[in-house]
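R.M. (postdoc): so does anyone remember the format we settled on? I'll just put the structure tokens first.
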């Protein structure tokens, strides 16, 4: 072979190697901002206010990219990750009940790989520093209203309530950090629960708080987070999950709507609360929305620890009427319902003999109002569970509105699940354009109307 040929081959070898290295490097850098012109890097140099202004402008001029919000849009969309997962296909009409993948035989021992420069972590939420870090990640990056002016503002106490129910699993608080500075940039959690799906009673996890840092969006971190969480959940011998989302992915078990009832109408108008529509003029709407000053149900009082057993049996009887419902233990009733300031409120009705006849609960969703001269925060009360055996639900919920208003909430929100339609319109709730879709992972069953859903999954 001539020297020139050897040279040529070596040059080809070198350029092949260079190409391979380049490819390898590109793979490693998958989540890394690319060079000085990278928009994320440029954005990072700006102040938070400037970033918000840019986001707002982008939103105003955007043609609405992102995941489908309706079934119609979803039918035309290609889900490259979800198509690989044990979930029903969009458009299939399901008549059977059961797991999609029978018994998960061998669970992968090692975690899924992350691009170079990132590592998995397990957040120990009993550690105040880690809890605070999670709070910061979520408050800066979790769902914002579409026009980026209202952003969720979770408190430490709220996160402990939502993520540490009885038997919570530390390894299912799954996080991604940047190696260089240990910054938390991704999170997904699962909490254990028992649920009833039609006739089947199943041990599941409820998946919550999926969040990817804004600067690492659209880089496919979500599929890795979901796969790793699934692996960790499978290690616990659980192969089923339930979750909710505002977007449509394959395949909703039920699609529900949010209904809103203003409590502080003026403020909602001032902060341009999304989806608030005045059917008549302001004065008339204020009059229509006026609530009584005091509650009217005799025996209505805040829940105490002594009410756990009474609520447990009332809810147990009430919730098994639905196709999808939680199977709560007394310990879980105590966790989810016992009042905690600025987290969860529960009221019970007791007769003269002390018998507990009714219960109603709502949780606190706090938000930060961005770029407003007067208002900095907004408080939504979200209906959790209600169970009535003696009081008309319309009266009980009207009293609940009065109580929520007196506690400083600005708006009361409820889904059209369970028997809620019975009181929503009567109490001047109006339907919003926001949907919440319920999903099951690795379980096949016919889909259901919202009024057959008896499970609430506070985020
Ligand atoms: C939701 C979020 C994590 C998605 O991140 P992203 O950077 O846009 O998406 P990625 O590139 O990482 O991953 C895309 C894949 O994740 C899936 N995905 C995105 N959001 C999802 C969601 N909320 N639920 C289920 N799957 C979701 C997409 O369908 C896509 O898979 P596909 O190819 O099968 O369609 C991110 O937008 C975020 O943190 N948003 C704020 C918090 C939030 O809305 N959390 C979800 C609450 S339900």
């Amino acid at each position: 072979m001539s020297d020139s040929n050897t040279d040529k081959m070596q040059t080809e070898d070198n350029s092949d190697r260079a190409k391979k290295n380049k490819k390898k490097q590109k793979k490693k850098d998958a989540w890394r901002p690319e060079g000085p012109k990278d928009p994320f890097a440029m954005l990072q140099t700006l102040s938070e206010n400037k970033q918000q202004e840019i986001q707002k402008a982008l939103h105003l001029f955007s043609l609405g990219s992102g995941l489908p919000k309706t079934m119609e849009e979803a039918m035309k969309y290609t889900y490259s990750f979800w198509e690989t997962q044990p979930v029903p296909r969009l458009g299939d009409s399901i008549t059977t009940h059961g797991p999609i993948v029978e018994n998960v035989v061998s669970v992968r021992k090692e975690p899924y790989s992350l691009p170079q420069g990132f590592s998995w972590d397990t957040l120990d939420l009993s550690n105040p520093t880690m809890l605070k870090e999670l709070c910061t990640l979520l408050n800066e990056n979790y769902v914002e209203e579409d026009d980026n002016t209202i952003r969720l503002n979770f408190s430490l106490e709220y996160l402990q309530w939502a993520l540490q129910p009885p038997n919570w699993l530390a390894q299912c608080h799954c996080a991604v950090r940047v190696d260089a500075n240990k910054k938390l940039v991704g999170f997904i959690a699962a909490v254990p629960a028992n649920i009833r799906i039609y006739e089947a009673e199943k041990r599941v996890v409820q998946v919550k708080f999926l969040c990817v840092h804004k600067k690492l969006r659209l880089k496919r971190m979500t599929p890795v987070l979901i796969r790793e969480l699934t692996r960790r959940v499978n290690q616990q011998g659980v192969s089923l999950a339930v979750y909710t989302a505002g977007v449509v992915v394959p395949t909703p078990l039920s699609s529900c709507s949010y209904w809103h009832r203003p409590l502080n109408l003026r403020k909602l108008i001032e902060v341009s609360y999304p989806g608030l529509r005045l059917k008549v003029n302001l004065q008339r709407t204020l009059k229509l929305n006026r609530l009584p000053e005091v509650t009217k149900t005799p025996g209505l009082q805040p829940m105490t620890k002594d009410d756990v057993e009474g609520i447990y049996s009332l809810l147990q009887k009430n919730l098994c009427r639905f196709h999808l419902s939680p199977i709560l233990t007394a310990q879980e009733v105590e966790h989810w319902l016992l009042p905690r300031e600025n987290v969860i409120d529960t009221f019970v009705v007791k007769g003269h003999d002390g018998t507990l006849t009714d219960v109603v609960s709502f949780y606190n969703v706090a938000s930060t109002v961005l770029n407003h001269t007067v208002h900095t925060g907004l408080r939504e009360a979200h209906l959790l569970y209600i169970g009535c055996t003696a009081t008309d639900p319309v009266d009980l919920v009207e009293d609940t509105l009065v109580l929520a208003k007196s506690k400083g909430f600005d708006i009361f929100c409820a889904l059209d699940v369970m028997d809620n339609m019975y009181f929503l319109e009567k109490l001047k709730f109006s339907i919003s354009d926001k949907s919440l879709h319920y999903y099951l992972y690795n379980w096949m069953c016919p889909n259901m109307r919202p009024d057959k859903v008896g499970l609430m999954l506070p985020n």
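R.M.: ...and that's the designed sequence above, right after the tokens. Also worth knowing: Residues 254-452 form a domain with the Aminopeptidase fold (CATH 3.40.630.170). The chain has two domains: 94-241, 254-452.
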